[in-house]
Amino acid sequence: MVKRGLQYKHLIQFALLILFLTQQQAFAQSLKYNITGSYSWYPYFIDHQAEAPGMIAELIPMILSLAKVEAEILDLPPKRTNNALETGLLDFDIVSPSWFAKQDLGPLFVKSTPIIQITEYVVTLPENLSQYRDINQIRGKEVGTVRGYLYHDDQHFIRADFASEQELLKALDKHRVKAIIAGNYPALYWSTQLGIPVALAAVHSDGDLVFRLRKEHAALLPAINQAIATLKANGNIDKIIKKYTQTQIS
C-alpha cells in the first residue's frame, strides 16, 4: 500500500509539473497584433501621437503586461489585417462582436471579457436626420464606410469605402454620400476638428470591445480576462476613457 501510495504521489506531482510547464509555455508566447484596421481610429487609436496614442493603444499593453503575455506589433496596411488574422500572421485584434453577423467571430477565434463599450451610429448632416432615424432606412442605399472595417449587415446596403472616419466626415460635407457609419466619439471629434455639423441618427451597432484571439492561444484567456477585471476594478480603464472623451458630448 505504501509503494502504491508513493506511485500515485509521483503521478500527481508529474501531472502538476506538466500543467505548470504548459501554462508557462502559454504565457511565454509572443503574440503578434496590429493596432487597428484603420490608419487612424480616434479616440481608440491615434497615429503618430506618442503621448496620447488612443484608448486601445494604451490599454492593450497594460492588459498584456498584467497578464504576463509578450506581444509585438506588426505594421500592416488596414486591408491586410483581417486576412492576416485568418491566416495566423496575426494572433489577435480588438473588435466588437456587434460588428459581426449574429455576433459570431467565427470558428478560428475565442473572445475575452468586455473591455469598453462602443456604439456606432448612422451619421448624417443635420438636415438629413429624419431620413435615417430608423436603421432600416439605410437598406439598399449607398453608405459611407471605412475601408477594412467590419459591418454586420453590409449585405443590406452599398458600401462606399473611405480611408478613415475623418475622410467620411469630409465626404458628408461634400455631399459625396448622405450617410456614413461611425462611432459616436470619432464622429463628434472630427465634427469639431473639421467644423462640420453632424447628427447621430439610428444606432447601427451597440456592444463592447474585446480581444479576438486565435483559438490556438485560448490558454491565455484566463490571464487576459483577469487583467481586464483588475484594470476595471482599480479604475484605470475609466481613467483612460475619460482622458480621451471628457471634452466630447455624449
TrEMBL record:
Positions of the Solute-binding protein family 3/N-terminal domain: 39-246
Keyword Transmembrane: no
Keywords (A to Z) from UniProt: Signal
Record-linked Gene3D superfamilies: Periplasmic binding protein-like II
Record-linked Pfam families: SBP_bac_3 (PF00497)
UniProt similarity note: Belongs to the bacterial solute-binding protein 3 family.
The name this protein goes by in its record: Basic amino acid ABC transporter substrate-binding protein
Source organism of the structure: Shewanella glacialipiscicola
